[in-house]
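Z., the sequence and structure:
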Amino acid sequence: MRFIRHVKKPGWGVGRVLEDDREDVLVFFEAVGPKKLRKAVAELEEVPDSDVGPSDLLRHVKADAKGKYAAPPLTFEEMVQNFLRIEEAASTTRTTSRRSASIRRRPSRSLRTS
């Protein structure tokens, strides 16, 4: 199994390479599911196998009868752990966005007199 990360899409999380040909790569990302990417355009970096846990969702992705890839159903505990991991990775991006948004949205003062 080969795992990668899209450099410009950190919110997608880690992905497992499902198919790889000369021009394209099909990757199942933990946060967004399957994506077909052009190798010449996508900035991908390898993720060491040791960084992906033995019970991780990505290790259990399978194709159905129609050839569509899907992750198996998760237990509640697995869903919580995946959510926390993805939320932690995205928190720095959201914090930065909130700060800049709060600067832009200063409350307007009303000059009404009664």
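Residues 76-104 form the longest helix (29 residues). The chain has a mean pLDDT of 79.

Let me know what you think.
H.
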